[in-house]
Amino acid sequence: MVLAIAESERVRGITSPNPPVGCVILDESGKAAGFGGTQPVGGPHAEVMALKEAGVKAQGGTAVVTLEPCSHYGRTPPCTEALIEAGIKHVIHAVSDPNPRAAGGADRLAKAGITVESGLLATEVSRGPLRAWLHYMRTGRPHVTWKYAASLDGRIAASDGTSQWISSETSRKEVHEMRAKLDAIIVGTGTVRKDDPALTARDADGMPLPRQPLPVVVGMSDLPVGAKLQDTALHLRTHHPDDVLTALVEQGVVDVLLEGGPTLAGAFWRAGRIDRVLAYIAPALLGDGPAAVLGAGVSTITDAVRLTVQDVTMSGPDVRISAVPEN
Amino acid sequence: MVLAIAESERVRGITSPNPPVGCVILDESGKAAGFGGTQPVGGPHAEVMALKEAGVKAQGGTAVVTLEPCSHYGRTPPCTEALIEAGIKHVIHAVSDPNPRAAGGADRLAKAGITVESGLLATEVSRGPLRAWLHYMRTGRPHVTWKYAASLDGRIAASDGTSQWISSETSRKEVHEMRAKLDAIIVGTGTVRKDDPALTARDADGMPLPRQPLPVVVGMSDLPVGAKLQDTALHLRTHHPDDVLTALVEQGVVDVLLEGGPTLAGAFWRAGRIDRVLAYIAPALLGDGPAAVLGAGVSTITDAVRLTVQDVTMSGPDVRISAVPEN
């Protein structure tokens, strides 16, 4: 399953609105014979890719897959039929398919005499590569990760407005790699005026990475003439997060990074539309300057938005905290 | 040495201005025969305590000690002579004594035919139980740890001023245990007016722990009548951190916790008088309210006070970050 998760990570960012699934086919003796990840919409699913690589070695073998194989005719034939035809005897999947149209895959396989086991590394998969898609299936809304970089005392810029760079080169590189795996990045018109960002995913030499997310600008005002995002971004003239998310669903967007300033972040918090926080805390003090979020709808301590920390890691010298809202 | 460190931790908070040293005596076969920690000023040092417990078993044995044994006549006779008299053959210490009056212990022992080894777990000891004392020996000033609790977005209170409680019960308990190991706690008159703290170290049931630090209030204004600290605290009518630290040295204070508000923290930062930051970051968002430090003397990002993270741990649901200023 660890290898299947790696396969799914390889295709994360190219499959939306389909889930980025990974599959490994083991031959009868348990040796890995084929690897596959979901291809872009209309292309083969992970199971079909892995079966193709395994060829006749799939006969009598096992399919290890991050998501329950689908059993419906969508843009591609059902994966259950491909597994049965290839002579697979065992299927192990991490997460059951919550999609009512595609579910029932495990039942279909069992009826064909295949043993099916589910739940292996389910937490790793549902918090990892399938996090955004599972959220989208559950709520109908794209999954929103709010990312910011702040000093230890919670400032996102110095008092003169300068902020390049609070976080380390390692953290900025990590963010660029993250961008390349996402469907869209949102900023506000204020950030465009202040920073004139390109919102592209670039490598360490500043060269664009092969896959680029959709840049989205939110706000009523026009973009400044000559802004880098003027021709590339989807400009949504609204202030309400739900208008933004509805427009993004229409674009096939499932996994979103919110990189806007404190006002936009506050609007998303008040609307309850932030599903994860990624905070890069740089070991520095500014002692003045703006904070990461403004107006989260809290006026007294008992109303604080409480989160649960899921992960704390070092990103170079910075501390990276991943947290999700408590229900 | 791990056991010697544990001995030193047991006496941390009672030895200042002497160092909290721990010692383990191993008998000739390498078995632990005696344990000891430095007693309060005028009492026996760690080596003497451990030798006393080991008795005749010390003959031909090894002394494992966190600090190089002293070789001078101060309030007590030199530990080197006690080790020699007891028939110790080997001495292993973590940190060499930087105190010019007490140093030379290793030389004295070697001249008496004892093998001496230094540097074992030196980093653990110098960042751990001897951190404050080593700083004091190097600079002549008490070691200042600035501790604060903030939300993930860097607020130490909500917009209405409420702050009880941002951090978890686990973190607050940890702070009370830390207080009991320190010589003094500093707050400003503003914090006294706002929170009326007692600055005592209490257990989970609110009962005072056996050892209590000296409460210190800094600021020009009088304490409110009836304030809990009115009769117990040392009130220093100054705004300058160096005046505070000089007064504390006179009180035999080596290890200080700064728990003041943003203004006092800012003053200590501007003066370069913070030696360690302990930040308890609670996974909560406030979106408004004061930050942990105000006016650190930084106006643009390139002037940010840069720190190095030494340790990141979870304290219940909170993230605890320990960092020290870069030189």
From TrEMBL, chains A, B:
Entry EC no(s): 3.5.4.26, 1.1.1.193
Note on cofactor: Binds 1 zinc ion.
SUPFAM superfamilies given in the database record: Cytidine deaminase-like, Dihydrofolate reductase-like
Annotated CDD domains: Riboflavin_deaminase-reductase
BP GO annotations: riboflavin biosynthetic process
Domain of life: Bacteria
Binding residue positions for Zn(2+): 45, 70, 79
Active site location: 47
Required cofactor names: Zn(2+)
Ligand binding (NADP(+)): 149, 165, 191, 195, 199, 261-267
UniProt binding sites for substrate: 163, 179, 202, 259
A GO MF label: diaminohydroxyphosphoribosylaminopyrimidine deaminase activity
Catalysed reactions listed for this entry: 5-amino-6-(5-phospho-D-ribitylamino)uracil + NADP(+) = 5-amino-6-(5-phospho-D-ribosylamino)uracil + NADPH + H(+); 2,5-diamino-6-hydroxy-4-(5-phosphoribosylamino)-pyrimidine + H2O + H(+) = 5-amino-6-(5-phospho-D-ribosylamino)uracil + NH4(+)
InterPro entries for the chain: APOBEC/CMP_deaminase_Zn-bd, CMP_dCMP_dom, Cytidine_deaminase-like, DHFR-like_dom_sf, Eubact_RibD, RibDG_C, Riboflavin_Biosynth_HTPR
Pathway membership: Cofactor biosynthesis; riboflavin biosynthesis; 5-amino-6-(D-ribitylamino)uracil from GTP: step 2/4; Cofactor biosynthesis; riboflavin biosynthesis; 5-amino-6-(D-ribitylamino)uracil from GTP: step 3/4
UniProt entry keywords in alphabetical sequence: Hydrolase, Metal-binding, Multifunctional enzyme, NADP, Oxidoreductase, Riboflavin biosynthesis, Zinc
Reported function: Converts 2,5-diamino-6-(ribosylamino)-4(3h)-pyrimidinone 5'-phosphate into 5-amino-6-(ribosylamino)-2,4(1h,3h)-pyrimidinedione 5'-phosphate.
Sequence similarity: In the C-terminal section; belongs to the HTP reductase family. In the N-terminal section; belongs to the cytidine and deoxycytidylate deaminase family.
NCBIfam families, alphabetized: eubact_ribD
The protein, known as: Riboflavin biosynthesis protein RibD
Originating species: Lentzea waywayandensis
